[in-house]
Amino acid sequence: QELRPKSLDIKQEELGDMVEKEMASTSEAIEDAVRRIEEMMSQARNESSGVKLEVNERILNSCTDLMKAIRLLVMTSTNLQKEIVESGRGAATTQEFYAKNSRWTEGLISASKAVGWGATQLVESADRVVLHTGKYEELIVCSHEIAASTAQLVAASKVKAEKSSKNLGRLQECSRNVNEMAANVVASTKSGQEQIEEKDTMDFSGMSLIKLKKEEMETQVKVLELEKRLEGERVRLGELRKQHYALAGTYDAAEDGEAKPAPAPRRGILKKPPLAQKP
């Protein structure tokens, strides 16, 4: 008991209730997301037309398909979780089983939260895109996050499940379906973005020679600015990932007790050996 982390010092009843509440909350968040997407679809049909309506419908349809896939994933995960508890608790109560396997339980709760949060963020991003107040890139990032949280949920469930479990097989199939639907959201978002940007920015008819030259110079300046900003954001992303891995406990502890990242492979090893010169 003394060796157990303080964060796991939770009453048996509370831990068991947390699992059920979190799974129910995730299901509710997904149902709400489906309703909101339907409302956005109706609003888009009333307020947009032509290319913008076509793009919005394609993106929202792909988001709807993704939400349906996530809903099925959560339902299957809940069934598998009940199967795991029933087969593993023996004479113990459900709450005692969760308390005994508290690390696994917390992983399950965390994964469920991540799935629900990802679904909510996706809908909010889609809403902003339809209203032309958000960025298409937000939808793409949210889709990647959902795929990652889905993998986390499957991994958490797989730890305690029997290899021959039919529910585990269904869950893995649901996970593949979620990944496929998330990829469809990314594809529809990218194609829609290209259509809108091409329509809005590629119409140069009616411009004079001087105006065209001025636009060309301004665009060159913008390209240089964006390249510099991109370089800075990549450095920032790298530092954020280091901190993320450090907090997740994936850093190897150094001999002096400080947490340092695992050494990256030396670049020199990856270089091809020089070709032998002919005599």
Automatic annotation (TrEMBL):
Coiled-coil region(s): 207-243
Keywords: Coiled coil, Cytoplasm
Pfam families: I_LWEQ
PROSITE patterns, alphabetized: I_LWEQ (PS50945)
Entry superkingdom: Eukaryota
Subcellular location(s) of the protein: Cytoplasm
The protein's name: HIP1R protein
Organism: Chroicocephalus maculipennis
